[in-house]
């Protein structure tokens, strides 16, 4: 199993504590071992392939936002504690900017999360400008983009990850409209695999 960067920073202290506590306090050692195992599982990074043509989901989780923003559509995916937290590129393109915006840490599925800390990734695609936003949640404090301005992106490529909870949004290129959407609010998606929108149906 592949893991997202940073897993050692959180998992190794828990496993170390479990080893030390096993001598003096076995019940606490079990708790520490379980915590380390949960962290390792949380940082899992499975391989993914698109299930068809079109825009793929940037995140595992539930669709929490579908709305129009000018001539473009925004789709937000809320990641719960049980979801994979490695984010994927929804389409091919070239990174124009990667911008970190400090902010609050409200629950990622709430309306207040619009003011949360985030990293916005502006992407030039063949269908026009687009954006992926990695948004911190109530407990997440670190957003880790894997890409930089000037990088070429391939659909379903790993974009980054967020420690312990959050949301990922994709602002679709102007070429897509509501008739091209395959999803709706409440649907469950898999990053890099589930199709969000397609013009090839």
Automatic annotation (TrEMBL):
Coiled coil regions in record: none
Keywords of this entry: Cell membrane, Decarboxylase, Lipid biosynthesis, Lipid metabolism, Lyase, Membrane, Phospholipid biosynthesis, Phospholipid metabolism, Pyruvate, Zymogen
GO MF terms held by the record: phosphatidylserine decarboxylase activity
InterPro entries (UniProt xref): PS_Dcarbxylase, PSD-A
Matching Pfam families: PS_Dcarbxylase (PF02666)
Keyword match Transmembrane helix: no
GO BP terms, alphabetized: phospholipid biosynthetic process
Name of the protein in question: Phosphatidylserine decarboxylase
């Amino acid at each position: 199993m592949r893991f997202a960067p940073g897993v050692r920073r959180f998992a190794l202290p828990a496993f170390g504590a479990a080893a030390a506590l096993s001598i003096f306090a076995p019940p606490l050692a079990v708790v520490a071992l379980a915590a380390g195992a949960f962290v390792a599982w949380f940082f899992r990074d499975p391989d993914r392939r698109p299930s068809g043509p079109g825009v793929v989901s940037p995140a595992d989780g539930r669709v929490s936002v579908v709305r129009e923003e000018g001539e473009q559509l925004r789709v937000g995916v809320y990641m719960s504690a049980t979801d994979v937290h490695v984010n994927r590129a929804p389409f091919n393109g070239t990174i124009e900017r990667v911008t970190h915006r400090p902010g609050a840490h409200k629950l990622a599925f709430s309306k207040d999360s619009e003011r949360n800390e985030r990293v916005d990734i502006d992407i030039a695609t063949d269908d026009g400008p687009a954006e992926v936003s990695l948004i911190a949640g109530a407990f997440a404090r670190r957003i880790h983009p894997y890409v930089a301005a000037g990088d070429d992106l391939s659909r379903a490529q790993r974009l980054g990850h967020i420690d312990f909870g959050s949301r990922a949004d994709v602002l679709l290129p102007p070429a897509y409209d509501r008739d091209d959407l395959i999803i709706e609010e409440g649907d469950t998606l898999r990053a890099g695999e589930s199709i969000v929108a397609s013009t090839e149906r």
